[in-house]
Each structure stands twice: as C-alpha cells, then as structure tokens.
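Subject: design request, 197 residues
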C-alpha cells in the first residue's frame, strides 16, 4: 500500500509539469509570433519612388499641342509616352507630328521614336524619320525641332524628293517661319529630264 500510494503523487506531479511546460511553450510561441509581427510591420515601407531609369508616368496614345504667341506651333501624337519628371522629358514611340508654317500650310512628320523636352518643347526624332510637305518629302534618321526658333534640324544625311527633283545632303535646316531649306555639307542633285521651267 505504501508503494502504490507513493506512485500516484509522482504521476500527478509529472502531468502537472508537462501541462505547465506545454502552456509556457504555447505562451512563448504566441509572444514570439506577436513580437515578430510587430517588428516586421514597422519595417514595411511604401513603394519606392521611380529611379532615374524608370518613368514617373506612362501614357498610351499621347497627344500634345504647343502654342506660342496665341498661334499653334505643332501638334504631336504617339502610340505611347514615358514621362521622366527628373529629366523633364517624355520618351515617345511611333510618333506623328504636324508643324504649322507661318504662312498657311504644314509639314507632317512620322518617326519610329522620339523625345519631347517638357520645358523647352524641343523635339528629337530618330529611326525612320519622314517629313512630308505638300510639294516634297524629306527622309532622314535623326531630326531635331527647336521650339524657340521654329526650325527643323537634320544632323544626319537627308534626302529631299519632289515631283521633278531629288536632293541629298550631309545635313540641312528647314526654317518653318520662312519656308526656307538650307542644305549643308556635300549636296547632290538629280533633275528629271522632263523638268521644264
């Protein structure tokens, strides 16, 4: 009887110890999860601002009209535009622009790629660049438009094709105010035999 009586209290004490250890482990686990959650919640940061190489804004079917002294200077559309606020620039794909001449008329431009300076309103176009005037067509690979002077600059070789003549030069400038083209560098000219004054 003495041996049996001394075994029961040991089993009860053993079960109490196991329950106490289990409760402490559960409480410790709950505290650890809570502390970990609180710590990770403090370290959650908002989205990082765009880097220098990432656009602040992307737009499909971009369109812009530039005015100067109450007169429309040009109208530009593009399939897409990525606006970089840190560079004051919009990078364009598949762009079309219409430049309005001082007298009546306009020149229509198409290019694979381009950029617009959002401050100066200057435009750069590259890739296959085609500018169409009612009387002739200009083709080049790089073109710059200067808003302040209203001049198109062709830094790369440019080919101008009209009804009876074809010109090619190393570079050229087209003054949209006067409608004058200035050919620069080596200039070649082809005139159709049927050309008559």
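Subject: RE: design request

Done. Sequence follows.
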């Amino acid at each position: 009887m003495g041996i049996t009586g001394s075994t029961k209290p040991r089993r009860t004490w053993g079960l109490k110890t196991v329950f106490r250890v289990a409760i402490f482990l559960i409480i410790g686990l709950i505290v650890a999860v809570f502390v970990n959650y609180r710590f990770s919640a403090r370290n959650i940061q908002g989205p990082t601002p765009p880097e220098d190489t990432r656009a602040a804004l992307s737009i499909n079917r971009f369109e812009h009209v530039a005015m100067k002294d109450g007169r429309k200077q040009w109208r530009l559309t593009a399939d897409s535009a990525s606006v970089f606020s840190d560079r004051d620039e919009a990078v364009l794909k598949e762009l079309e622009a219409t430049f309005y001449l001082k007298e009546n008329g306009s020149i229509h431009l198409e290019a694979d790629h381009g950029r617009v300076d959002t401050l100066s309103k200057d435009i750069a176009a590259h890739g296959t660049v085609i500018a169409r005037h009612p009387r002739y067509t200009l083709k080049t690979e790089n073109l710059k438009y200067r808003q302040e002077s209203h001049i198109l600059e062709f830094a790369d070789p440019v080919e101008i094709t009209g009804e009876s003549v074809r010109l090619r030069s190393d570079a050229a400038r087209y003054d949209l105010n006067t409608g004058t083209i200035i050919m620069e560098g080596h200039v070649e000219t082809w005139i159709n035999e049927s050309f008559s004054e």
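Residues 1-38 form one domain.
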